[in-house]
Amino acid sequence: MTRYIDVKDVSKLVAEVGMTRVLTTMASYIEQDYRRWDTFEKTARLASHSTDGVIELMPTSDNRLYSFKYVNGHPKNTQSDLLTVMAFGVLADVDTGYPLLLSEMTLTTAIRTAATSVLFARYLARPDSRTMAMIGNGAQSEFQAIAFHEMLGIDEIRVFDVDETATEKLVHNLAPYRTLRVIRSDSAADAVRGADIVTTVTADKTNATILTPEMIEDGMHINAVGGDCPGKTELHADVLRRARVVVEYEPQTRIEGDIQQLTPDFPVVEFHRIVSGAEKGRESASQVTVFDSVGFALEDFSALRYLNAASRERNIGIELDLIPTPPDPKNLYGVAIGSTSCEPLKRVDTALADAIRH
């Protein structure tokens, strides 16, 4: 039977386990899977672009489990009180092809994106980082803020958004985290000034320049989350030229990330090489590092693995009758007409033969 997890089920899991533990455990799953990079089938996601957005499929497999995620990105949706991003996903058994899990992935993607950001920052940011600027205070912002506070020790976040109501929402939602200082900024430049880490998580599908070269200081780590499809960027090209740029899967990031602005020979480092020890994350305290984040299918695979294990352990979700289970697997027609016996088929076959003869 396929387990089905909906939005309420993921909310229940977070309530039972706690957001911090969910983030930490998911980050651990993602790190484990990056460590076995060579076992995965990898491809850039399949994207269908329209004027106002994109719909994508993100598949991968490690020859034991297969997963895919359906996800959209439509920045104008909020004007109709719809989410900018929503997703669902499947985890399946490779040997049989049978789906093990069908899950919502709108909440899950927000959690796994924040978990991935912190995981990369552990390897790329200065260990003494305590302040972060957050440019873009929309649907992803709380997850990022909580992850960096709880998992990396960030105790001050300076927030800015052109939409003041988004900032109000973020400040309100972070109020329970009393050891986290949340400071409103008047501009992106004001928020970034003196920050150890800068997270950009804007939604507009445009070649924006949220960060410009004069805003960048020695030793900063930039967690660039919002530039994630062709024609959508957040960083001035000279910011990238100054930095050590780390990516998830280079063929995909060349198309979708901020590095789409640069020539194909611009040097980047894939994260799995840093996890394995083949490359350093940060080469010096003064070096500027950039995680050009676009989201990769391996991270969704990890998130689905975690959800599958956690939901079964806690008996969250339901068993879904998604796949027919006839006693005779060759008698699928019997299921279609409401019978798994061979007798109805025999009667139909006899009637058909009589009709042909006449």
Question: What's the short version?
Answer:
The protein is an alpha/beta fold and 358 residues long.
Fill in the keyword field for this structure.
alpha/beta; 8-stranded parallel β-sheet; ornithine cyclodeaminase, domain 1; NAD(P)-bd_dom_sf; 358 residues; ODC_N; single chain; 7-stranded mixed β-sheet; Ornithine cyclodeaminase; ODC_Mu_crystall; Rossmann fold; 2 domains
Structure description:
The protein has 358 residues and is of the alpha/beta class. It folds into two domains: 2-107 and 299-320, ornithine cyclodeaminase, domain 1 (2-Layer Sandwich), CATH 3.30.1780.10; 117-295, NAD(P)-binding Rossmann-like Domain (Rossmann fold). The protein has helices at 7-17, 19-35, 106-124, 141-152, 164-174, 188-192, 237-242, 250-256, 271-275, 297-314, 332-336, 343-357; strands at 2-5, 46-49, 54-61, 65-73, 87-93, 99-104, 131-135, 156-160, 181-184, 197-200, 207-211, 221-224, 233-235, 244-247, 269-270, 289-292, 318-320. The strands form three sheets. Strands 9-8-7-10-12-16-14-15 form an eight-stranded parallel beta sheet. Strands 2-3-4-5-6-1-17 form a seven-stranded mixed beta sheet. Strands 11-13 form a two-stranded parallel sheet.
